[in-house]
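Long-time lurker. I teach an intro course on protein structure, and each term I like to show students one example going from raw sequence to a predicted 3D structure in token notation. This year I'd like something fresh instead of my usual example. Would anyone be willing to generate the tokens for the chain below so I can use it in lecture? Attribution to the forum is fine with me.
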Amino acid sequence: QVRLVESGGGLVQAGGSLRLSCAASGSISSIDVMGWYRRAPGKRRELVASITSQGITGYIDSVKGRFTITRDNAKNTVYLQMNSLKPEDTAVYYCNAFIMSDGARTPNWGQGTQVTVSS
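-- Reply from a regular --
Happy to contribute to a lecture. Here you go:
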């Protein structure tokens, strides 16, 4: 059984910063790609940022230069540093990770954490 537990969401004013964390636990052999998705009210879920086990990162255009994804492989944890937040960043943010566990590679999701940016 593998779990992803997120933390760090909250309410912040425009221009402010938040740092999201997502820790994986359980029977883990290895973790491949980790990423952060978000779903804003009335919109489809979108991939915000991703990072491979080698540290290669990718971002959607709207967050480039403002968000930074990192990971600590020793702690099975991925982070999302969000700076210069805008009201349009308001969404529920979900952690995702492809984890090798008990001989199978499966996608795993966190429970979601709300990020609200006020104008």
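Some talking points for your students: The longest strand covers residues 91-101. The chain has no helices and eleven strands.
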